[in-house]
Amino acid sequence: MFDIAKIRNDFPILKREVNGKPLVYFDNAATSQTPQQVIDVIVDYYQNYNANIHRGVHSLSQEATDAYEQARQKIQEHFNIAKSHEVIFTSGTTDAINLVANGFAAFIKQGDEVLVSALEHHSNIVPWQMLCEKTGAQLKVIPMGTDGQLKMDIFHELLSDKTRLVFCNHVSNALGTINPIKEIIDAAHKVGAAVLIDGAQAAPHIKADVQELDVDFYTVSAHKMCGPTGVGILYGKEDWLNKLPPYQGGGEMIAEVTFEETTYADLPHKFEAGTPNIAGGIAFGAALDYMNAVGFGAIASYENDLLEYATKKLLEIDGLKIYGPLEGKASVISFNIQGIHPYDIGTILDKLGIAVRTGHHCAQPIMDFYQIPGTVRASFSFYNTKEEIDVLVEGVKKARMMLQ
Ligand SMILES: *Cc1c(COP(=O)(O)O)cnc(C)c1O
Fold first, then answer.
1. Three-state DSSP class for 195?
2. Atom number in ligand 1 closest to CA 123
3. Residue limits of the Aminotransferase class V domain (predicted)?
4. What does the alpha-carbon distance between residue 112 and residue 235 come to, in Å, rounded to a whole number?
């Protein structure tokens, strides 16, 4: 069923060399690689039917509009979204979160509280800080433990009738922790608070069902799941999207414009001002087709094998510490070696053709929590192999010898 040789053959970049060594790409949590099938869709768009959408009566414009709207339907089906106009195309997760944070200023007042988890990416912290600054609401943090899990007992204590919004990622990009989002959503709803789940890091590993989750907002970036950069979605419940004011003014998002008054277009166009990333949207649909053909069940079990294997091998290295959970998480390993700066390890690994991320992974509060400058993060995708993990382990051993 899971033919790794065939899968790897779909990703042209995996054939290249870096610094004279075969590329070992373990920076999948930052961005995933793109299969030929998705690249072909982008090329086909520009070669054969590049035109602006929703405007022209001409054939090319119609073809482009049809393909773009078909992609919206694929996204709708994938995340089990009830209505296609609940899928708002954005430039990615950051853009989607800012759209909601900006709009929520209309519903938040001084004395209200906004809860955010300690495990967040900066893109799910800063927009809420800006919102609180603007409105006088208070930002409260759901704390984490050294095990890299949220302290849920404290979360439940923090909830009150002052809580308007709760923000949390589905999967932490820095540690791989899978957060108990169903529990968070249900408890927040009991006090009348809305919930935004940042699904950027979950989407490549877990197929979320937004109706079953009963989540108010869910965000995804295509480039983390075999699609292109610069495109993603905001899912929002219809009621919320109707209530939220538009984020940006411009073409496509209006019904009528006079200098006295403008009325806004219906969903989803109200939030889609200007010419979107048309090729990107269509390619996002193709990326979902690709991943679904491989199968999310097969992806999860294969990646879990890689994770177990890598965890075991890495922990055999003297002085190596893994941060956050060791199992029951997405295929992300954040580690350090005692006495060595993560950046130095990353630099040596790069010389060996191995791409990892070093630093705070846009989640500085987590690094502050552990009182470290950062970590080395190796994140695995379904196109990686155990042989590549062996190369990583040998590389880390070599770095340790050279640096200690
Ligand atoms: C990557 C990531 C983001 C940011 O996504 P962009 O595509 O850069 O907007 C936000 N949250 C998490 C958990 C991520 O992994």
1. strand
2. 10
3. 24-392
4. 24
